[in-house]
């Protein structure tokens, strides 16, 4: 068996094309969707991720502002800065780039963002609504994973989804999303983490295995069921003397051996990353719609209706 490689770039481009058209409809009514990002410090990886996000905003016609605050910014200064952006009516979406410096309380900072401007879907109000199955802004990576599955023909409905990782960014909200009694969900969900004994026992049961552990090649072929669908969220740098940079990017799974055994798998890079950014663009449109009362078109709403 040779796995289908789920092409996150291709699926994200299809979504972005729809978003580009929708942005034009907003602009015809005099509304220019705008996303503001905030980075505290000079973390190189965070800068790269933000550059990608701003480049994608430009590609679809969304205006973006990139605010970079000094490494020594105090927590109360950051929170005041966020609240000032909340009051700025020209800004519709706010994204606080994580991780933050350790002295800043991440929960307090995220909670300072207005729930209606929370383009990342991480505010406690949006996370709570997600758990309850209410309409909300869905965190970008879980939302993107759902899109990869559905648009590739691997519906989680009735399947056993095993998620390796319990972060607030991926594991917890993805479990909440996929357990709902809705189209694109309706799965039986198990979460594994660092406290799980005999993780192999659970991963081998997965019809759909989502790996978000932050550890290169943590999941090997012997831990995966024949014919499973594998979504690799990880992105890790490993040394590689054959490359110009001296390193290469790998996921949290041993891609080369697993692809011989499973039904489908996402590559790293080119899998979850691009679709996550596409969902950030969609969320920016959604929050713009909420604030301006400009309804999203039938075309863009159909994007997330599944046969």
What's the CATH topology label of the largest domain?
Rossmann fold
Task: Please give the order of strands in the largest beta sheet.
Answer: 1-11-8-7-5-6
Percent strand: 15-25%
Q: What's the count of strands?
A: 11
Q: What proportion of the residues is helical, as a percent range?
A: 25-40%
Q: How many strands, which pairing sense, and closed or not: the largest β-sheet?
A: 6 strands, parallel
Overall mean pLDDT score?
A: 95
Low-confidence stretches: none
From the spread of the alpha carbons, the general shape counts as globular
Keyword list:
Rossmann fold, globular, 16% strand, 3-stranded parallel β-sheet, 2 domains, 307 residues, alpha/beta, 11 strands, 6-stranded parallel β-sheet
Write the layout of secondary structure elements.
Layout: E1 4-5, H1 8-28, E2 34-40, H2 44-60, E3 63-69, H3 75-87, E4 93-96, H4 106-112, H5 124-132, H6 140-151, E5 160-164, H7 171-178, E6 188-192, H8 199-203, E7 208-211, E8 229-232, E9 236-239, E10 247-250, H9 255-258, E11 264-265, H10 272-292, H11 298-302
Parallel strand pairs: 1-11, 2-3, 2-4, 5-6, 5-7, 7-8, 8-11
Antiparallel strand pairs: 9-10
Helix pairs in contact: 1-10, 2-10, 6-7, 6-10
């Amino acid at each position: 068996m040779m796995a289908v490689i789920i092409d996150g770039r291709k699926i994200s481009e299809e979504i972005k094309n729809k978003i580009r058209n929708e942005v034009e409809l907003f602009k015809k009514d005099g509304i220019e969707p705008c996303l503001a990002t905030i980075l505290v410090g000079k973390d190189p990886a965070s800068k790269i991720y933000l550059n990608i996000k701003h480049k994608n905003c430009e590609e679809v016609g969304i205006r973006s502002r990139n605010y970079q605050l000094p490494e020594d910014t105090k927590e109360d200064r950051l929170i005041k800065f966020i609240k000032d952006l909340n009051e700025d009516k020209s800004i519709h979406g706010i994204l606080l780039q994580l991780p933050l410096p350790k002295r800043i309380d991440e929960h307090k900072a995220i909670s300072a963002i207005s729930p209606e401007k929370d383009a990342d879907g991480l505010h406690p109000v949006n996370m709570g609504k997600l758990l309850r199955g209410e309409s909300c802004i869905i965190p970008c990576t879980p939302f993107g994973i759902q899109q990869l599955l559905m648009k590739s023909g691997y519906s989680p409905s009735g399947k056993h989804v095993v998620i390796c990782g319990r972060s607030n960014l991926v594991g917890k909200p993805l479990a909440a999303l996929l357990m709902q009694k809705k189209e694109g969900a309706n799965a039986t969900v198990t979460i594994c983490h660092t406290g799980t004994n005999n993780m192999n026992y659970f991963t081998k049961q997965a019809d759909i295995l989502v790996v978000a552990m932050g550890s290169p090649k943590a999941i090997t072929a012997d831990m995966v069921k024949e014919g499973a669908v594998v979504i690799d969220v990880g992105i890790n740098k490993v040394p590689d003397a054959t490359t110009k940079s001296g390193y290469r990017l790998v996921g949290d799974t041993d891609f080369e051996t697993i692809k011989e055994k499973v039904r489908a798998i996402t590559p790293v890079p080119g899998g979850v990353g691009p679709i996550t950014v596409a969902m950030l663009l969609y969320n920016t449109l959604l929050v713009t719609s909420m604030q301006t009362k400009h309804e999203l078109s039938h075309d863009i709403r159909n994007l997330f209706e599944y046969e």
